[in-house]
Design a protein that fits this description.
The complex is a heterodimer. Chain A is mainly alpha-helical. Chain A has 14 helices and 2 strands, in the order E-H-H-H-H-H-H-H-H-H-H-H-H-H-H-E. Chain A has helices at about 10-35, 40-50, 55-80, 90-105, 115-140, 145-165, 200-215, 220-230, 230-235, 240-265, 280-290, 295-320, 325-340, 340-345, and strands spanning about 1-5, 345-350. The longest helix of chain A has 27 residues, at about 115-140. The two termini of chain A are about 10 Å apart. Chain B is an all-alpha fold. Chain B has one domain: ABC transporter involved in vitamin B12 uptake, BtuC (Orthogonal Bundle), CATH 1.10.3470. Classes of the chains: A mainly alpha, B mainly alpha.
Chain lengths: ~350, ~300
């Protein structure tokens, strides 16, 4: 007989084990879905998870997709740790891209070492401005940040659409919905000849290091954790709750904005309609899968980035619909949340009494 | 300028039609939230309902099977949410987000074979009475049964919560799960039921979109309506009758957008499309500013897990 028993305290080992379990369960469930759809499960999974990253180009693409996911998820971990539900990173990314793209367009016919730093900074500021809206409304008007940050995603995409179709569209571009090409000085340099991976990856790595330092080595990180654990305790300890909320939103907005910079100043080099294939939403899953831990987030961003690549490969080689990627992402989060049950409860095998 | 009074009636009717999916989804979510559960998966459940309804209609040819099937699909997908949040005690917000991401992906996957297929005509009621009363006729007559159901639903929901015993139990579970549990109420069962009911209503809302409002399947066709429905619940301060008002305002914004374009108002179309989202934010700010009022009307245990220690 199996009995479910509550653990005295959450298990630390299981805390880091369940993400692995969740990925494993997702693969099994994915195989079953492929089978139902009429594909050979193992072959489909191979095309989904192994083929895309089997060569140098594939690996570069993996890093290219993991970079924004990691960057955004690091930012979100500040919010989630302190119990702020910023789910509008997609909007902050888009607005960051708009602001940095706008600045890059100002310099479109100029060269100079100073241009790129200004463009990057503009992206971070754009993301921060956009993230400050739900933060200020939450702190001063008691407004639900989940709904506000989400509504702003739609608004940001419409602003971008308006700009690239209208005032910012390339005057020599035959009415395509895109801007001029940025000058080379406004582009993040590519790291290797023939590959698309660009210097944006260093922004992500810097964010990882800084966040690790803040979380584990500063008083601020401690305050964040306490506020996330219990708002009452934080209040009792005299922490400035409102400032904290605004700060974590600004940090996560800046990270999302930087991810937006990477998307437009990297391989593409112009603003167009779709700056992000929902990186901002997927990064929420990355943040959870990585357990809001900087190193965990790096690993999680690589795993989740595969679902983007796998969806493309599987579509080309096996005509598997590309949305399977999203299905996998949803399932990973489901399984992760479900396996958290093991954190608090354990199964006990009891010999049947006679 | 002479305004044709029947034209005014037609505009009001079109506003009401665009309010229908919001009313259905919001009223469903309202019951879920009144039991203390915050399900952010509305958008995901709606899109699942939309594709299920459309697919079943195309495959079986039966509108009844399609509508009921869409509701069932909403129930099934919300069962995942119910199992995770109630049995495995997961975080409501994260689970709801997962449900939305999963729902959008699955619906696009199923919907791949249904893109570009024309929909069927959905029968309307009282069509013969369409020209009888000026102004009122287009508002009252010639709509689908789902339309009439949607406008009755807020009143039914209100009656259910205020006057019936089961409604009282739902409220008790949402406001104080501990005392409800001590009274011998099975909190987990009630919450399961409320989540599944919310799923059914979101499924119906989705089916209305893909079968009646714009009879075709388009990827991501819910376009954020699920999130607006969630905002409407806050707007209503958990009062079903106010959902009706809110949904009419948002329906109005959607319709105005078309008419402004039609009469050639020179505002960028993207701005008009963004209007409902911006207005949602403004409305949320106005409603939430009074934190005391919000606290009094929010179900006390909303979003908090309840676990009876074993």
């Amino acid at each position: 007989m199996i009995k479910i028993v509550k653990r005295d305290q959450p298990s630390k080992a299981i805390f880091f084990f369940t993400p692995v379990l969740a990925i494993f369960l997702t693969l099994i469930a994915g195989g079953i879905i492929f089978y139902i759809l009429g594909f050979k499960p193992f072959e489909a999974l191979k095309f989904f998870f192994i083929v895309p990253i089997a060569d140098k180009y594939g690996f570069s693409e993996l890093l290219l997709k993991a970079t924004p996911l990691c960057l955004i998820a690091i930012g979100l971990s500040f919010c989630f740790k302190s119990n702020n539900w910023n789910i509008g990173a997609e909007g902050q990314l888009t607005f960051g891209a708009i602001v940095s793209g706008g600045v890059a367009l100002l310099f479109y016919d100029q060269e100079g070492f100073y241009i790129l730093p200004i463009v990057i900074l503009a992206g971070a500021i754009g993301g921060m401005i956009y993230a400050s809206i739900p933060a200020i409304l939450k702190t001063y008007f008691n407004t639900n940040e989940i709904l506000v940050s989400l509504m702003l995603v739609y608004v940001s995409k419409l602003i971008l659409d308006y700009l690239v179709v209208g005032p910012w569209s390339n005057p020599e571009g035959f009415n395509f919905p895109e801007t001029r090409q940025f000058s080379d000085s406004a582009r993040l340099p590519l790291l290797f000849e023939g590959l698309r991976i660009h210097a944006g990856i260093f922004l992500a790595l810097a964010a990882v290091v800084i966040s690790w330092f803040v979380f584990y080595k500063t008083y601020l990180g401690f305050q964040m954790k306490v506020s996330g654990f219990s708002l009452k305790t934080a209040k009792y300890a005299g922490y400035k709750g409102k400032k904290m909320i605004i700060l974590v939103f600004l940090i996560s907005g800046a990270c999302a904005g930087l991810a937006g910079v990477g998307e437009i100043t990297g391989p593409i080099g112009q603003l167009h309609r779709e700056v992000s294939p929902d990186y901002g939403f997927t990064a929420i899953i990355v943040a959870f899968l990585g357990r809001l831990h900087p190193v965990g987030i790096i690993l999680a961003s690589l795993v989740v980035a595969i679902t983007y690549l796998g969806a493309e490969t599987a579509q080309i080689f096996m005509q598997i619909p590309k949305y399977t990627g999203q299905v996998f992402q949803g399932m990973i989060l489901f399984f992760l949340l479900a396996s958290d049950y093991l954190l608090f409860f354990k199964f006990k095998f009891i010999g049947s009494k006679k | 300028m002479i305004v044709d009074i029947n034209f005014v009636g037609l505009i009001i009717a079109s506003i009401m039609a665009s309010a229908v999916p919001l009313i259905l989804a919001s009223c469903g979510e309202l019951i879920t939230e009144r039991s203390g559960v915050l399900n952010l998966g509305v958008e995901g459940m709606m899109i699942i309902g939309a594709i299920s309804g459309f697919a079943l209609m195309t495959v079986t040819g039966s509108l009844i099977i399609a509508v009921l099937g869409a509701m069932l699909a909403g129930v099934l997908i919300s069962t995942i949410f119910a199992f995770l949040t109630q049995t495995l005690i997961t975080n409501h917000v994260a689970t709801g987000l997962a449900l939305t991401i999963f729902g959008i992906g699955i619906s696009a996957m199923i919907g791949k074979n249904f893109v570009g297929i024309p929909g069927k005509e959905f029968p309307v009621l009282f069509e013969g009475l369409k020209d009888t009363i000026p102004l009122l006729s287009p508002i009252l007559f010639g709509h689908s049964i789902v339309f009439y159901f949607a406008f009755a639903l807020p009143f039914i929901t209100s009656y259910f919560l205020k006057k019936t015993k089961i409604g009282l139990i739902v409220r008790a579970v949402g406001d104080s799960p501990e005392s409800a549990s001590n009274q011998g109420i099975n909190v987990r069962f009630v919450r399961y039921a409320c989540i599944l009911y919310g799923g059914a209503m979101c499924g119906l809302a989705g089916a209305y979109l893909s079968m009646i409002y714009t009879p075709q399947w388009i990827e991501n066709m819910t376009g954020g309506r699920g999130w607006i429905a969630l905002a409407l619940v806050v707007f209503s301060t958990w009062n079903p009758i106010k959902i009706l008002i809110g949904a009419m305002i948002f329906g109005g914004l959607t319709i105005i957008q078309f008419h402004m374009q039609a009469i050639g108002v020179r505002i960028p179309v993207q701005f008009l499309t963004a209007l409902p989202y911006i207005v949602t934010i403004i409305v949320l700010v106005v409603i939430s500013r009074d934190s005391r009022k919000i606290r009094l009307s929010t179900p006390s245990s909303l979003g908090k897990s309840f676990h009876k220690d074993n």
